[in-house]
Amino acid sequence: xxxxYAGLLGxxxxxGLRTHDGGRVRRGILFRSGTPQFLDGESARALISDTxxxxxxxxxxxxxxxxxxxxxLDELRVRHYSHPFSIGDRVAADSxxxxxxxxxxxxxxxxxxxxxxxxxxxxxxxxLLEPDVLPVLVHCTVGKDRTGVxxxxxxxxxxxxxxxxxxxxxxxxxxxxxxxxxxxxxxSYGAAADLYPSAAWTAPAEAMERFLGNIDRRYGGVLALLxxxxxxAQEVRRLTDLLxxxx
Length: 247
What we know:
alpha/beta; Protein-Tyrosine Phosphatase, Chain A
């Protein structure tokens, strides 16, 4: 389980993943995790010192941000960019829990992010092109579903091998279990977290493989999806230049 920064589960540098043309994602520029709200001040300062973190892209609902907070990152002047994913109907107005009742709950959930608000999902890629955003931490609450989708779409965009995308998604399984258990202690989840099916407690590689395969079939691939929502070849080249090294 993640121990580098106490309270920050699922944290990792996405750097080092391989591209189809022999490049690698630059290290020290793109990070992912679960919610940073449980960081203490000392751990947060160490995180910023070690990574040079300038900003976070927060995929949580406004309700989650308001009720749960961000921990000490606000006080330490890390920029906060809110990019909430639409999760559909929730069990209650004051809850962040949405029912998951399909035969393939994870992939159905991930595809629903796009069917409900594809423009909102892909807009976070454009955010990375703005000045002084990088290095950035992309996170949601658990760091698996919304973060997994966001990071996978970004990595597919810049040419990372699908096998590496899938492996990154499935990393840190112990942190996923710990994060899911922690939901019960959180005001925006609580006991309603027990409504999640057993599949929600995992991040199996095959779920991400099926998700990306579904994007290929439904949208013609990630690049076509981006093009449909205003992110074209020029933006893709800029993202690739920012995030990929061929050294």
